[in-house]
Amino acid sequence: MDLRSLDIKNLQGVGLKKAEVLKSDANIFSYEDLLYYFPYKHIDRSRFYKVNELRGNMPYVQLYGQIRNFKTLGEGRKKRLTAQFIDNTGILELVWFKGADYVIKNITPKQNFVIFGKPTVFNKRVNMAHPEVERPEDFKRKLQGGALMPVYNTSERMKKSYLSSKGIQRIQANLRNFLGMSRVSDTLPFYLVEQERLMRLDEALKQIHFPESAQQLAKAQLRLKFEELFLIQLRTLRTKHMRMDKYRGLPCPLIGDLFNDFFNNHLPFDLTGAQKRVIREIRQDMGREIQMNRLLQGDVGSGKTLVALMTILIALDNGYQACLMAPTEILAHQHLESITEMLGNMDINVRLLTGSTKKAERAEIHTGLLDGSIHILIGTHALLENIVQFKNLGIAVIDEQHRFGVAQRSKLWNKNQDPPHVLVMTATPIPRTLAMTVYGDLDVSIIDELPPGRKPIKTVHYFEGKQIEVEQFMRKELAKGRQIYVVYPLIQESEKLDMKSLEEGFEHLKKSFPEPEYSIGIVHGKLKNEDKDLAMNAFAKGETQILVATTVIEVGVNVPNASVMMINSTERFGLSQLHQLRGRVGRGAEQSYCILTSSYKLSEESKLRIQTMVGTNDGFEIAEADLKLRGPGDLEGTQQSGIPIQLKIASLTRDAQILQHARDVTEAILSEDPKLELEKNAVLVDTLRKQKAAQINWSVIS
Ligand code: ADP
Ligand code: MG
User: Fold this and answer.
1) Whose alpha carbon is nearest atom 23 of ligand 1?
2) CATH for 458-616?
3) Which helix (H) or strand (E) segment is 518 a member of?
4) Is it true that 47-146 and 458-616 share their CATH fold?
5) Which amino acid residue places its CA nearest to atom 10 of ligand 1?
């Protein structure tokens, strides 16, 4: 039976209206989708609480006792029904805001009931609104299915359509009846289920919705988590295998004159141990006859540009051209500058191509790329245009890769007959589990060491209103000859308001730091490119001391003399953004500071974000915290990844071990059977095919 082709509207107890809501709010289109709509937790209904144990912050609890003293209070919209619930330890007030008649009719005094609900505190007293009330005999009958009650995510709209958690439970039961004894066919081959001692799929799907015991539930969860993570690994690693099979790498065995000349005569400082290690990894990759597809992760300021340049030199030494793509013009410019500076008088032709490159120059660049006289092309998205063709592109480096999508990466692949080696770099560290899933098909190199002599940035948090103290501190730093960034949030949805606060902040600062003693620049996305460059360059040269900016300076910009990063309305930035911004300082040998200011009203999540920033400078720790706070679907770079990272049951923070194991198992399977041709793996091929079909299927229809 193919449960994917059965429309949910036909399931008993669903119908057209509910089906609409299930589709729009829960992505449930078919019977199978419902089956895979897992509860996010289970409540143990074998446990009874006493009234005197109740506290305001408890989850759902159940009690056993009598209900009496019904009273109708208030008028109109405030009208409500109250009653007293009594057991041998005390009295709990119950309240209903609607359905009073029904409640009164069904609850007989002097009889015992099981009530179930969430205690809340009102007027300093614990009460419970809209408890579920059941007769003991009904409750017992229900418990025969198991004392663990599943709880499903629901939206307001779902609740209004009788699809509360309980409503979902009901239709899950209908689906279970419909399935009867017929087995859901397993997505994993039998030998794998055996080998891993997993629960069979049909059993797991039953136990997750209707657990018979805590042990059975745990086994079901393990099975489903493994399946989910394993199938992602299988998909990505198989793609990788196919890619390695299909493409011949451009061989770069030579470490030649350019690399050696640079290494011996131009290197501005000693490489860090981590830089050396990564360059070795890259050299090995490029020397072999395989195409390199490598992710280079390194915290802000860890010196990735230099690694990129040395990688490029390897390609050049072997007769190839190179390109380096950055997400913004500012960054592309900066790369051009720092790379030309590092190369000095070496005979290498480096050019810049961005959206604002003039037509005549463009034409000249296109010709130079085709005849091979341009060796390195640095630029923005403009590089991706079809008209940009190379004579023989050997390596494509993508900086701040999380700003680009998979589609863009693959465009670079097509710039050469055999795809070039690809090095993608990111300074937004990605937790290992996420890297393994989202970038599972890439090899990963990590720079986990900062250049010597850097002092850790000191981060402090102030509430708004401490302006005077903050400005005093800024004056002290300026007096030492340092420079300061002052950042304001700017998001599209509230662009006008944000622009206003940016400009007001700028005006205010001009008064506090008047000319000619001080000079202040401003840069934001609304400026013309020339003006942006002017402002950035003035700051980079030290002509302006304070730079007021939006997040346009978030990535990459390098001004080592800047020692203070002051961020306004910190609560409006994401963690990785804050970390990126902070990374703009602490690039020289001086002690640097990051000042986070926020309003007094902070959500729990904002508080945690600020605490994390104050507590650590480590990008990987911050990435882990971000992953915990936001879940993987919202992390930068994951949306474009093409991997459905909204996992249904596994958690990338909690199930790292299962993930690692799933990856090991996948690798073992693929090393025995790289193309999945063995009969015993036929089920896997089938599962992958179905998954792919399902992805396209309903999303196109609905
Ligand atoms: P990111 O990894 O954030 O892109 P950059 O490549 O911009 O970092 O490097 C940050 C700064 O560190 C630059 O000023 C660069 O010149 C400097 N740097 C890079 N490698 C070293 C090193 N081995 N020793 C000292 N300074 C270095
Ligand atoms: Mg960089």
Assistant:
1) 271
2) 3.40.50.300
3) none
4) no
5) 301
pLDDT (tens digit per residue) in 279-332: 999 999 899 888 898 989 888 788 999 999 999 999 999 999 999 999 888 889
Question: How does residue 407 score in pLDDT terms, banded at 50, 70 and 90?
Answer: confident
Query: Is residue 516 reached through a cis peptide bond, with omega within 30 degrees of 0 on the bond before it?
Result: yes
State if residue 303 touches ligand 1 by the CB under 6 angstroms criterion.
yes
- CB 221 less than 6 A from any atom of ligand 1: no
Give the distance (Å) from ligand 2 centre to CA of residue 400. 7
Does the beta carbon of 426 lie inside 6 Å of ligand 1? no
Q: What would the two tokens of residue 481 be?
A: 């000859």
Q: How far apart are CA 246 and CA 615, in angstroms?
A: 47
| Atom 9 of ligand 1: nearest residue by CA position | 303
- In terms of pLDDT, which residue wins out, 125 or 494? 125
Ligand 1 atom nearest 275 alpha carbon? 23
Q: What architecture is domain 257-447?
A: 3-Layer(aba) Sandwich (3.40)
> Which region holds residue 27: left if phi is over 0, alpha if psi is between -120 and 50, else beta?
left
CA distance 379 to 335: 9
Rounded Cα–Cα distance for residues 1 and 680 (Å): 22
Average pLDDT over residues 371-376: 97
Helix (H) or strand (E) holding 320: none
CATH of 47-146, one of 3.30.565.10, 1.20.120.140, 1.10.760.10, 2.40.50.140: 2.40.50.140
Distance 303 CA to ligand 1 centre (A): 3
Nearest to 235 by CA among 646, 640, 643: 643
- Judge if the beta carbon of residue 145 lies within 6 A of ligand 1: no
CB 535 within 8 A of CB 522: yes
Q: Dmax over Cα atoms in the chain, in whole Å? A: 97
Ligand 1 nearest-atom number relative to CA 270:
23
CA dist., res. 506 & res. 486, Å (int): 9
The predicted-structure confidence for 63-93, as pLDDT tens digits, reads as follows: 999 999 999 988 887 888 999 999 999 999 9
Domain ranges of the chain: 47-146, 257-447, 458-616
Tens-digit pLDDT profile for residues 338-361: 999 999 999 999 999 999 899 999
Give me ligand 1 centre to Cα 3, in Å. 55
Share of residues in the chain with pLDDT > 90 (%): 56
- Whole-prediction pTM: 0.71
For residue 324, the one-letter residue type is L
Mutate to test the pocket of ligand 1, among 558, 576, 584, 585 (most ligand atoms within 8 A of CB): 558
Nearest CA to ligand 1 atom 18: 303
Q: 94: number of CA atoms within 13 Å, CB side?
A: 27
Contact status, residue 11 vs residue 34, Cβ threshold 8 Å? yes
Q: Which residues surround the ion ligand 2 when the cut-off is CB under 5 Å?
A: 556
Percent of the residues in the chain that have a pLDDT greater than 70, as a whole number:
94
The answer for residues whose C-beta is within 8 angstroms of residue 3's C-beta and 6 or more apart is 30, 31, 32, 35, 184
CA 269 – ligand 1 centroid, Å:
10
**Average pLDDT of the segment spanning 624-646:** 61
Mean pLDDT of the chain: 88
Q: 239-277, pLDDT tens digit by residue?
A: 888 887 888 888 898 888 999 999 999 998 999 999 999
pLDDT at 555: 61
Neighbour-count burial of 511, counting CB atoms closer than 10 A to its CB (0-12 exposed, 13-18 middle, 19+ buried): exposed
